Amino acid sequence: MNQHALWLSEKDVTSLVSLDDAIIALESGLRALGSGQGFNVPKALESFGDGSAMHSLGSALPAAGYCGFKNWVHTKSGAKALFMLFNTQGSLVAIMEAAALGQLRTSAMTGLGTKWLAPKGVDDMAIIGSGRQAITQIAAVNAVRPLKRIRVWSPTPGKRGAFATEVRKRFDAEVLEANALEQALEGAPLVTLVTRARDPFVSAAMLAHGAHLNAIGAILPANAEFHQDVFARVGTIAVDDLMNAQKASREFIEYFGASGWESVQTLGDVIANGVKPSGKGDVSLFKAMGMGISDLSVAMLAYERAGAAGLGRPIELSDSASAPIHWASSKPA
Q: Residue 325 and residue 333: Cα distance in Å, rounded?
């Protein structure tokens, strides 16, 4: 068993893994998952207080030699996430701060959903939402469908304007700051929703013919971004993890209920076995909820590169038998 594990900070992770790296690593992990060479541990989720939530995601890729868990708590005051990486011999090999890792895997997942489901050659994207995930969502789509035009919309004009300015600085594309949601979506072949909306706001009529929709923001059972009529236009539909969608996607639960999920593919199956259109509609839909394999794929790469580069801080691990348990309190009477 290992006597030391590596502590990797947010800075370590971002210096070791780029978004392009994450897309490649995650595609490999998803292909293994779709081929039956990996598995996810069902997500644990519980809400408390005024919109706070606890999460835990686990997964394993035995052929690669790793498994692990990401745990985090999200509140109005902030969030903190940690990933614990084990080898398949049972040793803890790394603990890493996981905010950047989460952004990398979430964005990379959108990139792969776009790569495998969206029409070839499209270069015009609408990003709906201007929070901290939005800029990397654009970057991930741009990595697989180089963009010539980016439409930006979020409900708060000041935040929207500041975000549009940032997008202009980061990307060599025409950037349109839309004054209305309908303006942003009109004719857009690529649409990514990355909001914290409690109630759906995108309807089927707003989407262009043949559009690809990435629905990324609503990952709690109380939240939703698109209306139910969108499903009637969907010809190809995929999720990152079916069990998580069945458990926590309000949009999917309201439409499919307790049965009828046969038309929903996982992206791992799509990558391993090819796209299987599930309906007669013209829209493709990808719903990402978050799953363990996506975190694990990026964490494995960060750890292996850290070892090669000599990065990270060693943490001494105790022998499990070296600390005897005291049956009575050691406090003085």
A: 19
Counting beta carbons within 10 angstroms of the beta carbon of residue 329, is it exposed (0 to 12), middle (13 to 18) or buried (19 or more)? exposed
Contact 145, 122 (CB under 8 A): yes
Give residue 267's domain range.
113-287
Neighbouring C-alpha atoms within 13 Å toward the C-beta of 171:
29
Q: Does residue 325 sit within a domain?
A: no
Q: Tokens in use for 195?
A: 């909001």
Tell me, yes or no, if the pTM score tops 0.85.
yes
Please report whether residue 274 resides in a domain.
yes
- For residue 198, the tally of other CB atoms under 10 A from its CB is 14
* Sheet arrangement for strand 313-316: 39-48, 52-61, 66-75, 78-87, 92-97, 4-8, 313-316
Give start and end residues of each alpha helix (H) in 43-156: 99-117, 134-144
CATH, residue 71:
3.30.1780.10
Nearest alpha-carbon partner for 269 in 33, 5, 73, 9: 33
- Nearest-angstrom CA–CA distance, 171 and 241: 31
HEC per residue, 109-127: HHHHHHHHHCCCCCCEEEE
Q: What is the pLDDT of residues 1-58, one digit of tens each?
A: 668 999 999 999 999 999 999 999 999 999 999 999 999 998 888 888 888 889 899 9
Q: Rounded distance, CA 271 to CA 201, Å?
A: 30
